[in-house]
Amino acid sequence: MNDAYHGRLQGTALGFFAGYVDTLGFLALFGLFTAHVTGNFILIGAALADPGRASVLLKFLAFPAFIAGVAAARLLVVVVERRGAAALRPALLLQLVLLLGFMGCGLAAAPVGAEAGPLAMAAGLLGAAAMGAHSAASRLLLGHLAPTSMMTGNVTQIVIDAVDCLRGADDPGLGARLAKFAWPLAAFAAGCIAAAFAFHRFGFAALVVPVLILLGLLALEAPVPAGQKRANAS
Fold first, then answer.
1. Is residue 234 part of a domain?
2. Which residues contact 68 (CB under 8 A, 6 or more apart)?
3. How many structural domains comprise the chain?
4. Alpha carbons 135 and 34: distance in angstroms, whole number
5. Which of helix, strand or coil describes residue 116?
6. CA-to-CA distance for 36 and 12, rounded, in angstroms?
7. Residues 130, 102: Cα–Cα separation, whole Å
8. Which CATH number goes with the domain that contains 41?
């Protein structure tokens, strides 16, 4: 698999993953944004002004949970890279463990009532931690890709490049850059739509889709045996 196709596959899969998980968390847990700190700050402000809103505590705790996920991913990458190993697979495994915790606690908490009980709270915090680890891994290990969980910057760059394309700018990398940012954006939007339908049909069990995405990415990043490397080289 060539590097360009590999990067596009990673960006598309992770964009879908991020949109899916964030949308499902929003629908399942009182409007919680598992991947967007900015959105949770807005919801905290709205909840403080209107104490009748559900689960302001969950939105407060989602911020330190997200930070914990970022910190855990950073420390994991440091430890693995100090040993001279590739850190992407361990970082994906961390996301997988946290996401399975999100799904398991959500299934145990269902049906979630008007307020978040302990299991629903745990589900939300594990989801936020999973997306914190996702954001950190994207920045630390996949910097050559477009961001997969923060779409505002992607949209801005796409519009800038589209305007330059229409005005005939002399930029040989314009087409490649448009594709780099457009694929994760389209996948994120598709993930949001898919998660909305899947959650209404299957509840927290719908998180099996991002679990399968992570398993697929782990298989994609599996180390190639030395014998196969020699055969490919020859």
1. no
2. 129, 132
3. 1
4. 11
5. coil
6. 19
7. 8
8. 1.20.1250
Report the C-alpha gap between 210 and 192 in whole angstroms: 12
Question: What are 93's two structure tokens?
Answer: 């495994």
93-131 burial code (b ≥16 CB/10 A, e <16):
ebbbebbbbbbbbbeebeebeeebeebbbbbbbbbbbbb
Q: What is the pLDDT of residues 202-229, one digit of tens each?
A: 999 999 999 999 999 999 988 766 555 5
- 71 CB contacts (<8 Å, ≥6 apart)? 132
Query: Do 76 and 136 contact (CB within 8 A), yes or no?
Result: no
Local structure of residue 110 (DSSP, 8 states): P
Q: How far apart are the first and last CA of the chain?
A: 16
Give a yes or no: residue 44 inside a domain: yes
pLDDT in tens, the chain (234 residues): 577 788 889 999 999 999 999 999 999 988 888 887 777 778 778 777 776 555 678 888 888 999 999 999 999 999 999 999 999 999 999 999 999 999 999 999 988 876 778 999 999 999 999 999 999 999 999 988 898 888 888 899 999 988 988 888 888 888 888 888 999 999 999 999 999 999 999 999 999 999 999 999 999 988 766 555 554 544
